Amino acid sequence: MNVLFLGRLRYVWDGDRPLLYFGLAAEPFILVRIIYLILTAFDSHSKLFNPFAPNIYVQAFMQVTMEFIAFIFFSTAGVITPGIKNTPSPRNNQMGALPSTQQQKYRQDDTELGTIPAR
């Protein structure tokens, strides 16, 4: 999924780019974990992937370690990306800026709904 977003990188806000990069870096580790779960579910004749008596070393490496690495990537991305208060409004961005008449209409609608205090 992130590969599709990587192809449209110019449309991603600058503040959201770390989420894309870290998500892309975490995908191989999540893929290893998914492969382990599939092998555990469907390969019941193997000694390594037996769901009732799993090999603790294989499980520790392919499940727990991969999940921990993905957690570190996503936690780091969450810390690095700016909060909602620091991101620009989509109405005022340079790529899709609305004409001033539409901006006034949105301000009027938001004021009537009580989301923006009246000026």
Q: What is the general shape?
A: elongated
Question: What is the overall pLDDT average?
Answer: 75
Let me know the largest β-sheet.
none
Put simply, the count of helices is 4
Provide structural commentary.
The protein has helices spanning 2-7, 17-42, 56-80, 100-113. With 119 residues, the protein is an all-alpha fold. It contains four helices and no strands. The protein folds into two domains: 2-87; 89-119, no CATH class.
Q: Can you lay out the helices and strands and say which pair or pack?
A:
Blueprint lengths: L1 H6 L9 H26 L13 H25 L19 H14 L6
Question: Could you name the key traits of this structure?
Answer:
119 residues; mainly alpha; 2 domains
Can you describe this structure in just a few lines?
By secondary structure, the chain is mostly helical. Helix content is 60%, strand content 0%. It contains 4 helices and no strands.
